[in-house]
Each structure stands twice: as structure tokens, then as C-alpha cells.
Amino acid sequence: MEYARPATVEEACSLLALHGEGARVIAGGVALSILLKQRLVEPDILVDIEGIHSLRYISDDANELRIGALCKHREFEKNPLVRDKFPWLSRAAERIGCVQVRNAGTVGGSLCHADPASDLAPPLIAAGAEATLRNSQGERKVLLENFFIDYYQTSLSEDEILTEIRLPRLSARTGVSYEKYAMREGDMATIGAAALVTLDDDKQRCIEAGIVLGAVGPTPIRVKEAEEALRGRAVNESSLRKAAAAAMEASSPLSDSSGSEQYKREMVGVMTRRAVSRALQAAS
Amino acid sequence: MTELKVVGEKLPRVDAREKVMGKAVYVDDVQLPGVLRGKILHSPYPHAGIAWIDTSPAERLPGVRAVITAKDVPDARHGACYLDQPMLAREKVRYVGDYVAAVAADDEETALEACNLIEVEYEELPTLFDPVEAMASEAPLIHEHLAEYGLLQPLARCVENSNIHNHFQLRKGDVEKALGEADIVVENRFSAPMIQNGYLEPFGVVADIDGQGNLTCWVSTQGIRWMQRSLQDLTGIDRNKIRIIVPYVGGGFGGKGDISAAAICTVLAMKAGRPVKIVFTREEIFLSGNNRVPVITHLKDGVKKDGSLLAREVKVIMDSGAYSGMTSMIVTNAGFGGSGPYDIPNVKIDSYGVYTNNVPGSAFRGFGTPEIEWAIESQMDIIAEKLGMDRIAIRLKNIYRNGAISATGEKLQSVGLEETIMKATQAAEFNQPPLPPAGGKGMASAHKYSMAPGAACAYVEVKIDGSLELRQAVVELGQGSNTVLAQMVAEEFKVPLEKITVALNDTATTPFDLMTGSSRATYNMGNAVRLACEDARRQVRERGAEILEADPDDLIVENGMVYVKGVPEKSIPFRKLFVHGGYPLLIGSGIFNQKSKTVDLETGQSERPCAFWMYSTQCAEVEVDEETGQVRVVGFTAAHDVGKAINPDLVVGQIVGGVVQGQGIALMEKVEMENGRILNSNFLDYKMGTVHETPGHIIPIIVEEAHQEGPYGAKGIGEGVLAPTAAALSNAIYDAVGVRIHDLPLTPEKIYFALKKR
Ligand SMILES: Cc1cc2nc3c(=O)[nH]c(=O)nc-3n(C[C@H](O)[C@H](O)[C@H](O)COP(=O)(O)OP(=O)(O)OC[C@H]3O[C@@H](n4cnc5c(N)ncnc54)[C@H](O)[C@@H]3O)c2cc1C
Q: pLDDT grade, residue B494 (50/70/90)?
């Protein structure tokens, strides 16, 4: 197996174009090194993008937050800007693995790895994040919601690199929250539930809602029915119950050592309720 | 008793510095020139005949230096009780993971690749995964020749033509009659699953054979002499040509020391003519069959209205998997205390060790006791509730106290149980209401035996510079034995701890010790060390008497000096003892052999079935999330009767470590198996508690009810800590939300669904 460490995005992209299927991007290596060890992935060349320093930034433009793909989980967990303006995102990052994982793992790696249990995907999707993908020809943008295709599969093509995540500035009276259920602190999510709630001027009715589940299907699941149960109404016991029921209905968890399908589905309901309630609090 | 200066002090561990600096040596650090890496090929089938094996594709791979199968090794077997396990499967495999062949190659990758090239033709056989089914008389046999196997433990009795390799029975009084006379009869079944020991350092072994055919084996094991003996049996090398060296061991909890793998490593080294190293991956540790044996416990108790226990009937089934390992011994030893720490006039215990085609289970911190105490202490709370009785009161009504006659007929001494109950419940403020809305408190008491018979030996060498070297074979697994034993030497010679060195474990230089297990080191080796010190001091006095022209009995040995009592100004340093008359060597030796009294095989009666008993009480406080079933452990209070704390800090270390380990076991640990195949053989999928799950606070309490025969009154601590933990937690969960779980672990899912049914 060969190893290359390009210093620029252009260089990395041309390596990918040259080697096609045989090339594999490695960022923090947290996820990929396990696959390599188990020989589930056997590339001809590893393209290590960690040397591309231009992909490691967090910046705040007038209308959006921009996160470079090589940003470490730990960085935006601790970043004052994120903590101040997007506290829900730094709280979600805080829940990822242990400090070692957060120091090594990157935002781009977490999303491109496309483990449905990623803690970042659900809240980022709920908040309308967009991904920038680059190859030697140029770049394109996709809504993160449309980025995930199946277990460990994304709409990235072989020769593309994810370079940036952009998060639109949220409108006033908007709250976002992410709830994670795991057997132990530091485990991958058994269930993740993110909620976005925007209230009207009087803070009486919900005018915009986003509900996204993690870990309970092949990709993060946006639950439109749950959003509809909230949108245009006062958030109360009855709408909460409807949203939770819709989320349970939309989820397709699998039985494993952290719980049976039935239990997990029940927990989807509990976590959805908790996420919406917290988002509501943050919005008010 | 003279005043103690070093024993009883909170001194830092003698190995702390080198461990913190990363300089302590473990097996994997042993580097020999030209060493090869060994790998084992495991069976993919739970039960299958081996029709043929073709190793030639592996042998042809460049870099491969030796390939072995059963036909390359003597037809011999090993075991702690029954000699039932070959180092490499002959005729058939009995579990998914059974050792089938092995390779030594220039590096690990090549060895692994070669293993995958070995072709094996299997013929599948009927399988058994449920121990209760395996006990049935018509069940297919997993070991057809069980009754013919060699037996190392006279107390084990198999049931011929069955899968039951040991049936222990205890009979006291008339249980049938007493159950009829009881006001209430309470019957329940509890279970504890297979769990993994989860030590940090993976098992490792390095084997090297010199030009004279002498084997030197560096190995991480808890049983040095057992390893030596088994290697002789399995490889045919004479015992006097086998040298076992055990450097520091990174945790064991009863599961360290894979005998088959050490023998395989040796045979590979013989065949390749070069040293070979095998270090297990985490997956291989799970497969090696040293996991904790799963246990099912049935209890049937007859109780009077006033809470006194009239009768207890106990049936215990231990699923040892494909080989009996330590399980046969666990069946007997745990059977002795199988009715709990209570004075019950009528007791009937039947415990069984059963073969199945599951991955073998064996010893784990507590040797069967925590699994049975989990059942008993859950049951005690169930009884208390049925009678409307206080949970402390029902225990105080029934517990063993000094002088009580135990279930086996032993007159008990050094019983500090009541004190542990009083101190733990007081410190835990057990009678104060728990946190609202879903907080709860639970308690559990327990006893744990330490095995007998068993010998421990020690040498203490007095050095010319006044320092002392202790040579003994208790393995330093992290428990602190080197420190505790060195403190005893320092105490006996009245010198500071820095004057003592503890030698590396090496059969060439350190004398016999039965094994590092059963919480026996402080008591047994402690006694041997004191005897060795006494012997060395006698020699010091005799030599000093010559120089000082005094009666040896009038001499005082202190601080590296000898002097006539009352005349310390005329003292002479140890150096003089060596120079005078030309005696350059001074070694004291000590042999301690804790005897037991005969056990009646029909009734389990014995006036002394074990060395000593440790007693404990723990209180847990929890908070339950009623929407999810998740449990947060608010706090733990753990009171343990250790006889005498030689080093209180190390006792506290054992208590705190044990509570944290026990909490993980109670709440989440379980080896998941499907048709004999382990599904979670790595630390991502096998959940153990981490630092995040540790209780909010732990209050350790040391109780010292001296044992007449213990060194300075000491008993032990290690295993006792796990005994009450699971039940204390389960009882706290019941107190919090009224949900009683009968099968460990106490997962949120079980609690959640039980809550829905409530
Ligand atoms: C013990 C442990 C615990 C964990 N716990 C959690 C948890 O609690 N929550 C959670 O969300 N995650 C968790 N993870 C997963 C981990 O955080 C993410 O998978 C990690 O962040 C991946 O980032 P990385 O930079 O290491 O990616 P890598 O391992 O380097 O790469 C992962 C994949 O993404 C591809 N890739 C990486 N970067 C790019 C890019 N810029 N463009 C295109 N492709 C790219 C690689 O080719 C590879 O396929 C855990 C992982 C471990 C090992």
C-alpha cells in the first residue's frame, strides 16, 4: 500500500483522479484505521489530507458559519465562536467518543465515513447545513440532508473531497438540540435525535421545525411527519406525542447488544420528545 | 504484641515509580534475538470431528518456520481439576475457538496468513448450548471419556455418562421437613451471564529452548507452578528443565495464564529451533476460554414470621463450556458457602459443573461466590418485603457471628460481618430517604472463602549491606502483593521499607507457591514470609551471639544491627556477621501449609473446608430514569472485614477498584453468544464500565476482626469486594422503582420493560 501526503486540495484531487478506485482519503484515521486493520478496506494508496492546512478553520461570515473539513471535533467543541452562537453544535461534539477520539477525528471524516450513528449529522441536517465537494474539475454543493445514501455510503464520487460545511445563520427565536442515547458515555449513539424549532413573534406557535434521527436506519432520517406535527401549531403535550410517534414510526432500528429493536423504537420516542422540548426551551 | 512500625502503614507501593515511568517489564517487553511470532488457528465450529488437516499450503508460504497440529505433540491433556483439555484439538473440536493448529513465522502477519492457508475438513456433530439441556440424561456427550480422565482434585465427582463433570452436595439438617414447618416459602431463580475478565495486558508467552534442551518460558500467568507442571505433561520436557519467569502481570482477575498457548509456543520453538512469542489479540482473549463461567442459581427458602431462616435449598448450575478449566473447583468451593453468610439450621446445596459447546468459562475474581451471592442477597430483600421487615433487621437476625457453626459444620472465628453491616449502613445513611423522584438505596452482605489446602514458601536473604531480599512466587498483578509482603519483611526486621527488594518471579530462584488466586496471598504467603524472617533472624542472632559472646536469645535484631538487649550502644551491623568466620550467605526459609479438614463427599461437611472467610456489606444508592430505564449510581459504601489491613491504602484500592468493576458487571457486562459463537469479542462491543460510569462517590470502610492464624491477624480482600455489589445495586433499583430483575446484567432495557409492566 502506498502513502501520499499532499499539501494542497488540488494535489489531493489529482491523486484521486489518477488512482480512481484504488485511492482512499484518510483524515484523522479514527474510523478508517479500524477498517484497514480488519482488512475491510484494502486501498492501493492512502491519500492523507491532514497536511492540507487550508482545510482547518472555523469562520463566521455575515450569514453563515463555515467549518473546514479537517477541523477536529475537539476544536469546534471548544471554539468560542461555536460555543457562543451554536452552543448545540459544541454540545453535540462534546458527546463524541472520548477526548482522544475528539482530538484525532475530523468533521469531514465523521460525515464521509457515513456511519448512521454519527453525532454530527443529525443536528447539522436539522439546521440546514450544506457540504462543499471538490474534485480536479471544480466544486459542487449538496445539502447535507441529501449527502447520505446508505450505510457508510455518501454521494461523494471517487475523485471528490469534502472541503467545507456551511451552516446558515439561524433565524430569530430558533432553538436546536441534540439528544443522544448510549449505553455508556463515549459510546456511539444507540439513538440520536436532533430537533430544530422556530417560534413565531409571540413565541406561541412553532413556525418551522426540523426533526432528524441518527443510528436508527441506514442513514440519518429526517422525519417530515414529525415536523408537520409541530409546524404551525403550539407545541404542547398533544403535538409532542404526535411528533414522537411519527419518529418511532419512521425509525428502523436493529436489535443488537445495546438493545432490542422494540426497546430502541421506544427510546426514539423518548429522545425525540426530549430534543423537541429542549429546542423549544432554547427558542423561547 | 509488640508495636507495629511498618505493617498497618499507608506506604506507597514499591512498584509505583517504575510503573508510572513506564519502565516496568511485562512479557511483551521480552525481546530475544531471532524471535518468531506464533499464531493459533481456531475452530469455526462448536462441535465437529476433524477428518483431516492439510498444513502444506501454510508450510510453503515464505517466512513460515514451523506448523504444528495435534499429531506433532504428545497425546496429553491439562486442566485444573479434570485433565480434559488437549493443547491442540485431537479427533474433534468442542467450541468455536478451539485450538486446531499453530504456526511460527518471521512476523505476525505471515503467521496469520499461514493459519488461513491451513485446510481442515470438519464433520459437524450435534451441539449443546444450554446447560440445562446438556445435563439431561439423553444429551449427546461432549467428553465421551470423562470418567477416565485424570483428576487433580479429589473433591470433584463427575456423573458418569453425562456432561456433568462435577456435582457437589451439601446436606445439613432436614430441609424438606423444615420447609413444611416454615411460615413462608420463597422460591426464585437468578442468573449471571458469562463475562470477560477484561484485564489490560493481553496474555503473552515467549518460549526459548537452549542447546541443552532447557526451556525458558516468560509468561503472564497467575499459576506459575501449575504452568510448569502442565508444560511438563503436555510437551514431555522434564520439569527440572522447565524454567518459568513471570514478569509484572497487567491484571488477571482469575483469567490469566493460557496453558495450551504456552505449550503450543514451546512446541513451535522446539520445531523451529528458534524462540517464539505469542501475544493474544483482544479477540483471542475472549476465545481462550478464561471468561467467567455463567451461573444459574435456584433458591428455595423456608422462613419464620420473625424473619429467621429455617431452611435454604440451593441449586447451582455452572456452564463451563467445552472444558472444565477451573469450573469443577468453583463448583465445590463456591458450594461451601452457597447458602450465604447466614446461620441456617437446615441447608441443602447441589451445585453442578456442566459441559456445553459454548466457549469455556473459568475463574473470575470471586470464584463463583459473587454469582451466588447475587441471588442470595436479592432473595433476602424479597423475603424482607414479604414479611414487612426492615432490610437491615432481617440480616442481623440471621448472620454468622463468632462461634457460629457454618453450613459445613465449621466453628467460625474472626467473623466481622455485623460490624460491616453497622458501619456500612451508618456511613451510607441507609435509613434516610433517597433522592426524589426515583432514587433508591440497596444493601447486600456476603462472605467469601479462601481455599485450602495449599502451600506457600518464601526465602528471605540478608545481605551484607543490611538490606533484605524476599524471594517468593505470588505474582504481582497490580493488587500490591509485592508491597504488602515487603512491609512484612520490613516489620520483622524493624527496618524501613526501602531496605527490602522483592525478586522477580522465576522458578529457578523463587520457591513454590500454590497460585495467585483465592485472595490467599496475604494470609498464606504472609505466614510463609514471617516464618522465613523468623528463620533468618535466628541465624542472625546465632552469628551475632558468637561475635558478641552472648546468648542468642538475649539478642535484639533491629535496623540492620544486632545487640544485646539493653545495650544498644554495643550493637554490630549485619556486615560483621558475614565477615566474621567467613559465612558469606544468610538465607531464611519459610514453609506455610494451610491444611483443611476432610470433606464428606455425601454431605459436604468439614470442620475446616477453607483457610478463612472474608465478610462484607455494601450499600448502593441509585437514581433511575423512569422514561429510559437508565441507572445512575449516586454512591457506594463498602465495608470489608480484612482481619488486619497491612497497608490500608492498598485495601482501599482493592475496595474502590472492585466496586467500579462490580458496578460494570452488574449493569452492563455480558459476553453475547449465538450458537456458541461470541458476538462481541472486542472492547467496542463488549461494554465495561468506564470512568464516566463510576459512582458519584465511594466510601470505603475497613473492618479489622483479627484472624488468629493470619499474619498480624490479616485475612484477605481481593475477591470479597465483588461479592455483594450486584445485589446491592439491584436492591437499590427495586427500592427506587419497584422493579426486580432476576438476570444480570441490569440493563436499561430490562428495567424499562419491567417498569411498563409494573
Ligand atoms: C472508539 C471510538 C468512538 C467513537 N465514538 C463516536 C461517537 O460517540 N460519535 C460519533 O459521531 N463518532 C464516533 N466515532 C467515530 C469517529 O468520531 C468518526 O468516525 C471520526 O470523526 C472520523 O474522522 P477521521 O478524521 O478520523 O476520519 P478517517 O478515519 O480518516 O476517515 C473516515 C472515512 O471518511 C473518508 N474521509 C475522511 N475525510 C474525508 C474528506 N475530507 N473527504 C472525503 N472523504 C473523507 C475516509 O476516506 C474514510 O472513508 C468513534 C470512533 C471510535 C474509534
A: very high
Report the C-alpha gap between B523 and B448 in whole angstroms.
14
- For residue A279, report the distance from its CA to the centre of ligand 1, in Å: 27
Nearest ligand 1 atom to alpha carbon A69: 41
Q: Which sign does the torsion angle of CA B653, B594, B83, B159 carry?
A: negative
For residues B412 and B415, give the distance between their C-alpha atoms in angstroms, rounded to a whole number: 7
pLDDT by residue, tens only, chain A of 284 residues? 999 999 999 999 999 999 999 999 999 999 999 999 888 999 999 999 999 999 999 998 877 999 999 999 999 899 999 999 899 999 999 999 999 999 999 999 999 999 999 999 999 999 999 999 999 999 999 999 999 999 999 999 999 999 999 999 899 999 999 999 999 988 999 999 999 999 999 999 999 999 999 999 999 999 999 999 999 999 899 999 999 999 999 999 999 888 999 999 999 999 999 999 999 999 98
Shortest distance, CA A135 to any CA of chain B (angstroms): 35
| CA dihedral (B448, B452, B454, B457) positive or negative | positive
Separation between Cα atoms, residue B384 and residue B395, nearest integer Å: 9
- pLDDT tens, position by position, B35-68: 999 999 999 999 999 999 999 999 999 999 999 9
Q: Give, rounded to a whole angstrom, the gap between the first and last alpha carbons of chain B.
A: 58
* Count of C-beta atoms within a 10 Å radius of residue B247: 21
Q: What is d(CA B172, CA B170) in angstroms, rounded to the nearest whole number?
A: 7
Closest residue to B627, CB basis, from A184, A259, A270: A270
Q: ipTM of the assembly?
A: 0.94
Residue B571 one-letter amino acid: S
What is the CA angle A152-A158-A161, rounded to 5? 85
Cα–Cα distance, B217 to B206 (Å, whole number) = 6
Contact A243, A276 (CB under 8 A): yes
Residue B528: pLDDT over 70: yes
Closest to B66 in 3D by CA, of B25, B18, B20, B103: B103
Using alpha carbons only, how large is chain A's radius of gyration in Å?
A: 19
Q: Which ligand 1 atom sits nearest the alpha carbon of residue A73?
A: 21
Torsion B10-B13-B17-B19 (CA) sign: negative
Return the CATH number of A174-283, one of 3.40.50.720, 3.40.50.300, 3.30.390.50, 1.20.1730.10.
Answer: 3.30.390.50
Question: How far, in Å, is the centroid of ligand 1 from the Cα of A118?
Answer: 9
* CATH architecture label of A55-168: 2-Layer Sandwich (3.30)
Instruction: Provide the 8-state DSSP code for B513.
Output: B
Residue in B687, B750, B757 to test binding to A, most A beta-carbons within 10 Å = B687
Find, among A232, A207, A229, A221, the residue nearest to A273 by Cα: A229
Average pLDDT for residues B213-222, to the nearest whole number? 97
Give the separation between CA B594 and CA B692, rounded to whole angstroms: 42
pLDDT of residue A283: 95
Q: Which residues belong to CATH 3.30.465.10 in chain A?
A: 55-168
Taken as a whole, chain B contains a residue count of: 758
> Which atom in ligand 1 lies closest to the alpha carbon of residue A25?
47
From chain B, pick out residues whose CB is under 8 angstroms from the CB of A181. 628
Q: Are B428 and B619 in contact (CB under 8 A)?
A: yes
Domains of chain B: 16-24+454-594 (3.30.365.10), 32-126+200-251+256-287 (3.90.1170.50), 291-452+598-757 (3.30.365.10)
Rounded to 10 deg, the angle between the B391-398 and B417-427 helix axes is 170
| CB neighbour list of residue A230: distance below 8 Å, 6 or more residues apart | A197, A206, A209, A211, A239, A243, A276
For residue B391, give the C-alpha cell.
Answer: 432490610
B47: its cell numbers:
462441535
Using a CB-CB cut-off of 8 Å, the residues of chain B touching A270 are 627-628
